[in-house]
Amino acid sequence: MSVDFRSLVRQAVRDEARLRASLAESDIAPLLMVTVQLTGDMALLEAVAPHIHGPWNFLQSVPEDLQQRVRERLVGALKDFAAHDRPAPPPPPPEVLQRMMSAGVGQPVPAEYIPLLLEEMSFGEADTRSVGWTVDPAARRSGAFKVLVIGAGFGGLCAAIRLKQLGIAFEVLEKNADVGGTWLENDYPGCAVDTPNHFYSYSFQVNNRWTRHFSRRDEILAYIRDVVARHGLREHIRFGVEASQAVYDEASATWRVQWRERDGTTGSATANAVITAVGQLNRPAIPAIPGADTFKGPAFHTARWDHSATLDGRRVAMIGTGASAMQAGPSIADRVAHLRVFQRTPHWAVNNPNYHREVAPGHIWSLEHLPYYSNWLRFQLFWASSDGFHPSLHRDPGWPHPERSLNAANQKMRDMIIEYVRGELGGDEALLAKCIPSYPPYGKRMLRDNHWYQMLRRDNVTLETGPIARITEDSIVMADGTVHPADVIVWATGFQASKLLWPLEIVGRDGHSVRGDWGDDDPRAYLGMTAPNYPNLFMLYGPNTNLAHGGSIIFHTECQVRYIMQALRLMIEQGVSRLEVRPEVHDAYNERLDAKAADMVWTHPGVTSWYKNARNRLTVTSPWRLLDYWAMTKDFRADEFRVG
Ligand code: NA7
């Protein structure tokens, strides 16, 4: 626990009525963990454990009298700590911790996860993933060393924070006028995160004041801006410049990055290392449907929402049914005259009762005032979104229905979702048939139901599942000749995700270029971060680092940034000017990765998605468990690199 454990406890008990009221609104599993951590009362843990059935708060059935026992025990313990001004208790021994964790999420937590979980929870330290120097400044062998970071979204900002902490000179190039990346660019109605917020945030910058379990875009953007202010990053960011080219110079072992400003002027800078943090989902993909450019009304992509366009009382055609459509559609359905949704392929969507809930004030109070509560909530949510489904995303070679599911667990998931959707659709079997994918659950990104199915039941909403033939100045024309008049078109058609790093042109050693090496859709890198022929170039959210079985992309970012900082530390401390991954290391990694992915749901022949390329190779998404990627990236290994 942090240094001010005593004052935290004193404050918590100052107003006992407030304390009790807050505990009543807090989640019982993390409360139990706090109580056990403060008291060591394992009997209480065992009494409650059978009533916790899973890692979400809505998966517990702890009887009220037992809940009250936990709260009373906690109030008593806090008062006792305060009365005797006692310091924080020592951390529980590993076997106790494992038992607590397992009880807290209602599932066995294997020992191999404990180091990762402790790091994510940051008990006792504010910042478990920071990288420090190993030698004094005087002993560092590199002189002036500069890093250029491209992009000021979650990834680039994380890199900037770590560079600043280390005192390495850096500059961030950002094409937009502000920070935030995808959270700046996307402001369509209903835009929100679908990973739980208390976990979808930097581990070293916990926000206890999220107002929702899954916050809306404005709140996330405010969090990002707050992080930038706290770390004094703005002065390091050059806004409104879009990096267009990065060229490696072998003689000086430096990169020259060129950029374009919004007024068309160009500029450039040189750096010893470059970190790309350009995201995967910010170049809108608009399909080339014949006649689309003749449409007379407003037509815009979800990521370029035209807020000046009138939707009220208009006939809106929304093309696409992915994550953006799932949020935008239900958010506008009650305003428009008619919403016609054009679906090419149905998606799987699950229900999460917290998705639409606000965080109770008492829960926020506990996050701020109760020692360890915030850490335990983060643990719980990490586990809920972690590797739980990973085993079920592998093919069972003996499974008799390989076209619709992978194995018994995946089929069970399929059946559960179908039942849920059937209920939401009020038993409309014809509509249900249109909404249920033929491919296995998790084949594409698993969506969270944002009242989508209820929306489809509205009188003013229609789901079209036939192919679109063309667009005229005022309508969408289907392949069967049906004409659907429309006043507005919303392209909810996603992003050019497989063309990683595009349109940034990167030229490495010996004339190698990223587009030449990768083509349009075949990116490869070691750990998603670095590739042969591109010395001193590091990628965040690079090939095969997207997450689709669980997790938060911020977790992956933190793993990557720690790895990259270790690489830069090596360069600076040892005076290394070139760091280039060995081709055999890179190739062996990608072979392992391809072999792993070949067995998984994303390469299922019945699925098309932006996770993979035209030849069915998984290129964007990671096949690894979070635990595996964490272990692979935890320690930078110089022997895997050519060091010069
Ligand atoms: P997605 O998830 O890529 O969804 C795009 C949708 O657009 C999807 O339903 C596509 O159907 C559909 N689409 C694409 N091209 C066409 C054409 N030509 N005709 C009809 N429909 C088409 O993008 P989102 O913006 O929703 O979400 C992207 C990510 O952002 C999301 O996963 C989160 O991580 C945040 P398809 O399924 O390909 O048949």
Q: Topology of this protein?
A:
Blueprint: H1 5-14, H2 16-24, H3 28-39, H4 42-48, H5 64-83, H6 94-105, H7 114-121, E1 146-150, H8 154-166, E2 169-174, H9 182-185, H10 217-230, E3 237-239, E4 241-249, E5 254-261, E6 266-271, E7 273-276, E8 299-301, E9 315-319, H11 323-332, E10 338-342, E11 349-350, H12 361-369, H13 373-384, H14 408-424, H15 429-435, E12 447-448, H16 452-456, E13 461-464, E14 468-471, E15 475-478, E16 483-485, E17 488-491, E18 505-507, H17 514-518, E19 537-539, H18 553-574, E20 579-581, H19 583-598, H20 626-634, E21 641-643
Parallel strand pairs: 1-2, 1-7, 2-3, 4-18, 7-19, 8-17, 9-10, 9-17, 10-13, 11-12
Antiparallel strand pairs: 4-5, 5-6, 14-15, 15-16, 20-21
Helix pairs in contact: 1-5, 2-12, 3-5, 3-6, 3-13, 7-13, 8-18, 18-20
The structure holds ligand NA7.
Structure explained in plain terms:
By secondary structure, the chain is of the alpha/beta class. The protein contains 20 helices and 21 strands. It is globular and about 75 Å long. 45% of the residues are buried. Ligand NA7 binds next to helix 11.
Percentage of residues in helical conformation: 25-40%
Shape from CA axes? globular
Strand content: 5-15%
Distance from N terminus to C terminus (CA atoms, Å) equals 43 Å
Taking Cα atoms only, what radius of gyration do you get, to the nearest Å? 26 Å
Query: How much is the average pLDDT?
Result: 96
Associated small molecules:
ligand NA7
Main sheet: which strands, in order across? Answer: 3-2-1-7-19
